[in-house]
Amino acid sequence: PYYPFSGQKDWEIVSWLLRSGLSMGKIDSFLxxxxxxxxxxxxxxxxxxxxxxxxxxxxxxxxxxxxxxPTKSPIVLYWRDPLECIAAIMNHPLFHDQVDFTPHxxxxxxxxxxxxxxE
Length: 119
Hints:
Order of helices and strands: HHHEEHEE
Largest sheet: 2 strands, antiparallel
Helix content: 25-40%
Number of strands: 4
Radius of gyration: 22 Å
Strand order of the largest sheet: 1-2
Shape: flat
Structural class: alpha+beta
Number of helices: 4
Oligomer: single chain
């Protein structure tokens, strides 16, 4: 589930590097460290196009709110589309074995006398 990377550790490193806000030059500098470059299986550079296949996550949106009272600075409302957030979670490789949509019945006792109804 971590394609195009060799596993979860590689995916986590590249994902963190790309979300860290570091420049590509700083990422290359990090990747050239002996500790990282001598790793037995990690092979990545900022020029590698496989990072473009990582899920980007939902975008932040913003809107400046107007008020009837003056403020020192504008009031900005930031939000993400909830459906895009749910889609990002459902498509995230770390959760691929954790989500289960199989319906099941819940009872209050082992004798299954009282059925519990939940959302």
